[in-house]
Amino acid sequence: MVKNKLQLFLQKGRLEAGCDEAGRGCLAGPVFAAAVILPEDFENEMLNDSKKLTEKQRYLLRPMIEEQALAFAVGIVDHMEIDRINILNASFLAMHRAIDQLSIRPEHLLIDGNRFKGYPQIQHTCIVKGDGIYLSIAAASVLAKTYRDDFMDTIHQQFPEYNWLKNKGYPTLFHRTKVMEIGISSYHRKSFANQGNQLLIEF
Fold first, then answer.
1. CATH no. of 16-157
2. pTM for the predicted model, two decimal places
3. Is the pLDDT of residue 192 over 70?
């Protein structure tokens, strides 16, 4: 088996928390974010960017991450807050809420992406496609994705017509068509879910 090429730390010996979000591009549901601090001896050849993993792999990895991490937490910003503050700020807020809940205070934050609203008194580094570079960000991506998927599976029971069990709220052709046919649910993001531009996005 090929060894995992993802890096454990940006700076060895420093307590770093990887942070990532899930659900930013969705028409419905919250945005979830996770923050994960991994130990210096952490190894896992399967762990990678959650988008490169199968659903089965993600759910196999989640308990491994939770058991082996020094600390982890998940933050949530619901669809109503997203409408009030916009999805970019909501993504930052979800990360802040995850960091708030960590049982250990990290010395540095590794943020997936190219933008972030600084967290008080903790420096950060933004890394484009960081979930495919650093293990802690990859771990955060797996937690954020699986916890959000669980949430979407639950609310699917209330609105099965949108098939969130399969699309998780993302703008698939089926989901966009249903929104145009029957309108939006109480979980849809009104700020863009019923706007033409978002409905025309290819996914």
1. 3.30.420.10
2. 0.92
3. no
